[in-house]
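Fig. S4 source data, part A: sequence.
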Amino acid sequence: MTKLKLEELLSAESEQLQKLNEIVLKAIEEEKLLSEKLLEFEDRNPPLISRVADRVAVFGGSWKFILSFALFMLIWILINLYLLSKPFDPFPFILLNLILSTLAAIQAPIIMMSQNRKEEKDRQRAVNDYLVNLKAEIEVRNLHRKFDLLMTEQMKTLFEIQQAQMDMMEEIKTALNYNSENK
């Protein structure tokens, strides 16, 4: 009788472990689905205009641009002041100012477009981070529940095993008493 009880306890424990494995597998699948959902928000192939705006913003906001444009202006001024007898853009450099103003007027909105796209990406990343954090919090709570369930079931199983051992000890005690009385 006690051997049957132990087998029942072990099979019940095995079933509980199987249930926990199923819960974990389901949680892993949900994690996959969440990560796949988050990848949908990534703009993998932005339009040509957006790519151009991003490249202009990267170049326009670099030291390479600043130094090359400073060199361009220096050469422009030197050519018009010293190298040409009849300069095409004399001293107040009105043409150079027009070029600078036009460049600034065109470059500013392009950089703003790129910054707006990056801001939208950052906003979406913040939402994605929130979703991942929420998922992690839910998983931690689930793990706590699973751990509590496992501890409760383990305690129950240990008490049942202890009871079975006590029953076996009683049977042994009864058998010993029976043997000692028959002698």
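Fig. S4 source data, part B ends here. The mean pLDDT is 85.
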